[in-house]
Amino acid sequence: MNRGSCEVCVFLTKENGVFPDETPLVPVLHHVAVMKKRLNIVTFSEKAGVSVATVSRALNPKTAHIVKPETRRRIQDLAAQLHFTPHPGARILRGTSMAPIAILLRNKDKIFLSEYYARLMSGMMHAAAERKQVVHAIAFQPDYEEDFNEQLTAATVGCGGIIYLSDTLTARMLIGLERLHQPFVTISSCLPMGVDPSDLTVPVFGTEEKTGGYMVTEHLIELGHQHIAHLNGPANRRDVRDRREGFEAAMADHQRVVRSDWCFNEEFTFESGVAAADYIFPLLEKVTAVVCGNDEQALGLIRGLATKGVSCPERVSVTGFDDALWASRHSPALTTIRQPWLKMADASVRMIHELHLKDGMKKNSRELNLFTPELIVRETTAAPRG
After folding, report:
1. pTM assigned to the model
2. Alpha-carbon span 30 to 345, nearest angstrom
């Protein structure tokens, strides 16, 4: 059977050796052929020259007022002429509701153990539930050699919108998204280097990463720290670069020197922080503070330095980024940057719904929602001693 086709099977019950009323087979097959040509909302929308979403709204009494009067009359007149009525069971036609939202996550081990993704997912599920919306979490790894839109379509069959949290997008992918038929939004950390989010036609949400990097560095400087090291995440990630730029900007504004041999890039893991203690420890003859790219790195570094007899913050101050669950439960409690998880999650779901009302990418807007993070001062930072 070809994809998208519909086969109709006709069963005639034979009684006493004959079919009821000697039903002729040819008329039955003719009736089957007529059924196979019956209009559905896709074929009707093609005849009307508008999108499926516009047809559904124009023919739904609750949403007809959203459609322009002339367009609404044209659709309703054509529906009456063709005796077309949308199937009441089609979920996407019920008011302004839509098919499930696909949340595309990085396809890697322990993704659901990551607090970063867990908090975003929790917030998105809450925001979607408030809108009586279903979400599907999908592990997705883009193939940079294949057509990106085709990959998205194949991975999100049956979904009405996409929130992208997977691997870094390329400029070519972003340009191609203008042809995507589904509403699509992405988090700013998935954007490629050198791309200004305000120039995109794809809606973007996220945190002002550079602001966060600046705030936490300035906090250390105001405590009196002169020599500060920087332990960050993978150098090819946009959020990592933005946090580094915030660090450098604060150092420059306060006449502090950034030394490249005091700046490191590792994975955003507890284990990488523990390992980093091996090369941070020799620097402590001068370095009195370390700005870390996330909380896991920071807590790992504190643990690794503790095994070498270095206490925090007595000998070195350490900061994180994210305000993960254990940041406040660790002893000493971690000074960090709190990401606005709920605001980010709500913005992503809201933008998907607004795109749905605008017929998706056909009427997309350059919406940019970058939220300001918050500095949370706890016990791992203090004035330098000695």
Report:
1. 0.74
2. 53
